[in-house]
TrEMBL record:
This is ABC transporter substrate-binding protein. The keyword Repeat does not apply. Belongs to the CmpA/NrtA family. One of its GO terms (cellular component) is endomembrane system. It comes from Rouxiella aceris. Its main location: membrane.
Amino acid sequence: MKHEKARGQVSRRQFITGSAALGGSMLLPGFINSVWAAGSDAPEKREIRVGFIPLTDCASVIMAAEKKFDEKYGIKIIASKESSWASVRDKLLSGELDAAHVLYGLVYGLQLGAAGPQREMAMLMSLNNNGQAITLSNQLKQAGVTDAASLKKQVDASAKGTYTFAQTFPTGTHAMWLYYWLANAGIHPFNDVRNVVVPPPQMVVNMKIGNMSGFCVGEPWNQRAILDDIGYTAITTQEIWPDHPEKILGTTASWVTANPNAARALTAAVLDASRWIDTSDANRIETAQVIAGRAYVNSSVETIQGRMLGSYENGLGKKWQDSHSMRFFHDGEVNYPWLSDGMWFLTQQKRWGLLDQHPDYLAVAKKINRIDIYKQAASAVGGINLPSSDMRSSTLFDGKVWDGSNPAAYANSFAMQR
């Protein structure tokens, strides 16, 4: 992938001139105090309340506050632990939260009225790639199910609706990974099995008491199911789509309109933290130790750290070092608001009947993904590579290539639809 190197160092004159050329809103850490003294670029809000769900991929938001990257950009992140994605949605819409660590598909669903009351939304940056999984119960393991093909045989041999699978939000990422995997195996996610919504921290206990046979969720809850000996990893989501988009830094469009400087500062702080996490294994270990705490994920460091370092086991005896484990930065490729990433979720929402008709895929993505804010934040952080295109190409595990070039045809190309 070709990149164009963003400038990390500019003179004060160049900075002020460039800021004016971009309509204000460029902020370099070395110039914070002098620029604010002139009142030109001060964040409209100094305290920014950011919601998160207790998952490993909330790490960059938490570390932006814990390592004081937020102070570097003149803000204070107030991290707010939420109980479910529905709660995150409701608090974003009410204004109780300024922004959130949130599911990509939730924000897109809100924009089109498929995930709740229609609201103009904004995606400031991507927080991570990869790092989710589909877990199956030990009862299925005892029945000889180890993968999608053997699950298909088990489902076919049982009455429809015998097996229940959980995901975390109807238009969210986990629902789309789960449906994609089931459908690829010939299992209709609505007609052949039951599917229910369960908040991430409640997945393991619900499987333990027999409420579902499988679930798709973020870490550390897949690893927790293995350590608690109640389930095993059937497939990681990076096996479905290597380096797939996952959580984003999301908010409402009205919040960005009212607080453009604060939006830029928040994005810069989290981007800076993302780079710090990915700099070394030592930083990842420190991050795992911090987010394991009661205020955040509230789980053992052991449950988080292994998969965060790419060290995987599946609960069936296989161990491996994953080359596409959870990434927070990866030379900026993770964080860029690729238009094609957002458009993919729309194709799957259309596929599964969450949208009645094809939207204007590209227009929706351009409206939600605030590439302008991201580029300003990248300039503020310095040394962030920017791609030459707002689209990227990926090949999923079924051989289908997604590049955003013909989204309606892509959505219609799947044999199994709802």
